[in-house]
Amino acid sequence: MNVLEGMRWGEAQLLDKNIDNARFDADMLLAEVLKVSRDKLYFERDRQLSNEEENAFKHWIVRRSEHEPLQYILKSQEFMGLPFYVDERVLIPRSDSETLVETWLELVRQEEKQGRARIKVADLCTGSGVLAISMAYYYPKAEIVGSDLSSDALEVARVNAGNLGVSVNWREGDFAVSIRGECWDWIISNPPYVSMADYVQCAPEIFREPSMAFLGGQDGLKFYRRLAEEAKTLLKPEGKILLEIGWDQGEAVCGIFQKKGFATQVFPDLAGRDRVILAR
Fold first, then answer.
1. Total domain count for the chain?
2. Residue 117: pLDDT band by 50, 70, 90 thresholds?
3. Is 163 annotated as a binding residue?
4. 235 and 112 share one domain
5. pTM score, whole prediction
6. Which PANTHER family does its entry note (predicted)?
7. 183: domain CATH number?
8. What residues make up the domain containing 196?
9. Is 191 assigned to a binding site?
10. Which of 64, 88, 90, 99 is deepest in the core (most CB within 10 A)?
């Protein structure tokens, strides 16, 4: 087959298996096989695929047809304009989470104008490390720790930090356990916040990702309660917490922290949905 035939064949195969964004995914897989950008495919539409290229492409289409996420096949996902390695050991970064990093950067730069420059940050449930690494990349003056219960996830995070040339202190531990006994300017987290009821309704691709990265207890609020319970022992007097939340969890999460004496503020994502909560 030539490139154009490959694009059409791949799309048809994925559509037959009810894969969302079938054309985009087929194009991206073919582009990766050919080592070109997606927009170059049409310029090379008459090029014949070698036997090796055709076999590799067809193998990847089969994998995607079985609802394996595109990012796991390509081993990559962009986040905050940076390339990250991902595989089955970690949650695939979502663009929604960029709201957390962007909000943090804005708040920290405001504080910098008031004379606070060197800050100590803990990123809990760091996974592939995208939050911690993005913060370190765009604000290198911060001292950043990334913590996760999964040693496999931390291996991926270390690879990403090395690839992007940033320094993050990685720690293994259950949620806040690895940062106890220290005082932090910021605690950042995109914790598991999907309820059991919502999880069972998810797209098939979700079940290929680590379930521990999604499930936040029966109602999705387990980790917010855990952090609120001990947050005051972890923060400096002016310390703050910045957390990603589900679009419908703003009121509930604010209530959890307000009961522990925190003032809260909710920030929306680009779609206008509640996405990040600040507790101080």
1. 2
2. low
3. no
4. yes
5. 0.94
6. HEMK METHYLTRANSFERASE, MTRF1L RELEASE FACTOR GLUTAMINE METHYLTRANSFERASE
7. 3.40.50.150
8. 80-279
9. yes
10. 90
